[in-house]
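Section handout, structural biology tutorial.
Before the tutorial, make sure you can parse a SMILES string by hand: atoms, branches in parentheses, ring closures as digits. In the record below the ligand is flavin-adenine dinucleotide, and the chain has 490 residues. In the tutorial you will relate the predicted structure tokens back to the input. Do not try to memorize them.
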Amino acid sequence: MASSFTSNEPRIVIVGAGFAGLAAATTLVKSGLKNVVILEAMDYVGGRTHTVRPFGANIIEMGATWIHGQTNNPLYQLAKSQGLLAEEGFHMTSCQPGMVSPEHYFFTEHGERLPKEEVQKVSAFFAALITRIMGQSFKADYSSWSLGDFLDQEFLASGLSEPGGVDLVFEWCKRIECVDEAVNSMYEFALSQLGLYTRLDGPFFNCLGPKGYQAIVDVLVETLPSTNLRLGKPVKCIQWAGSSEKDGNGAEPSKKDTGGTIQWTNSSGMDSGGTMQWEGSSQKDAGGTIQWTNSSGMDSGGTMQSAGSSEKDSGGTMQWAGSSKKGSGGTMQWEGSSEKDADGAHHPVRVVCDDGEEYHADHTIVTVSLGCLKERAQTMFKPLLPHGKMEAIARLGFGTVAKIFLEFEEPFWPEDCTGIQLLWEKGPEDKEVYNTHKEEDNWTSDWFKKIGGFDRVARHQSVLCGWITGLAAEHMETLPEAEIGETCVR
Ligand SMILES: Cc1cc2nc3c(=O)[nH]c(=O)nc-3n(C[C@H](O)[C@H](O)[C@H](O)COP(=O)(O)OP(=O)(O)OC[C@H]3O[C@@H](n4cnc5c(N)ncnc54)[C@H](O)[C@@H]3O)c2cc1C
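Predicted structure of the complex:
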């Protein structure tokens, strides 16, 4: 067992050192709970914020770039108080429908540059439409509508539509909206959900200074004792004490435990349950007797026989018979350890890493992404998380968003150009194209069409950044870098 814990205070293991994990750790430490260990799978801290320097001294952000909104935004406040925001006047965004300017160059696939007036009349309409939808609540008739279908309906009704003309700009707007909403397609995003996003007041694209997001990560890490952070420690399994919480369908979670404290609700449902402290019944776990007092006051306590196996730590079954008429007793399965830790205490949570190292704790906070949970939750938690949580993990969705950075020997674009946006005759966010791709599963040859465009990257002379979403992004991630690069510049 690894011992990074420093005192006899409650031990807490946080899984994941992205912003959620760092925020949890710093909050606990600030409130006096210093016995905290963070286990991070990767060899760096920050998770989906990742500041790197592949193109010389200046940074690029592989993940998050901006702090969105200012009012009541703790991240913004932290960055401001530490002097980590970009210098006055510094401004950088990707090209957004609501911000199209003459410096954004829009090209069709035939190499024609679209006049800015053509672009702006559609992009301004699109931005206003999104703002309207965000503030609108939709009647039941729209409950099954996708955002894409609604946008198409409104665009058609606007009279702006011009097949082969500004319609290309409208399709581009939908591609960019996929990035903003982190969804795979506008046709896979429920119309009714857009308004659920709470946008914090103040400027939306707040930029960080020359050290980027890494500077905020560093500030947070500095507040943690150095022994608390363990990198390269993927967690394989969390054996935990179960919970008294009822899950989504009202069913009780299982009652497995590794030793320590169990919250239980008596099987009769008439007894309000209570807390039981137990120490493995003997050093050899050969079974024993536990006296308990029920917290409900209705049950006057009783005797429990535990039929533990003779092997150490192998768990077992307990039969109990509540002594009152109201608590009818029940059965509890446990995978208990009879061993005490070096500090002489029992810690009910056992966090096991891929390399076999174990951390015994009193609490754990798991901050891994929904994607990781979808992949690993079935094997990660013992017992399984309550049914409602497993159901949520299975049914919640998310989209893929990725960036592509291209470095050139020198810029090939004019000085005033802030980026090149791509317009396609048959773009992937055209409903017909979307349906065909879906039915025929034939989108892989056209994956690059999901890229919105390439924006210039701040603090770099000759680097462009493209954004891509959905299955196209996932496909791109399987391709060799050289092939991606060649496709982007051909
Ligand atoms: C390309 C891109 C651009 C983005 N741009 C912005 C932006 O400009 N502004 C913004 O606000 N947001 C942006 N986001 C979103 C933002 O990055 C995330 O919302 C945020 O970083 C999530 O933090 P988190 O701590 O919840 O999760 P994560 O950052 O994913 O942290 C989870 C951590 O858990 C670790 N982990 C996973 N499994 C295990 C395991 N088994 N054992 C141990 N550790 C494990 C992971 O390695 C990771 O470090 C962007 C995201 C992407 C992908």
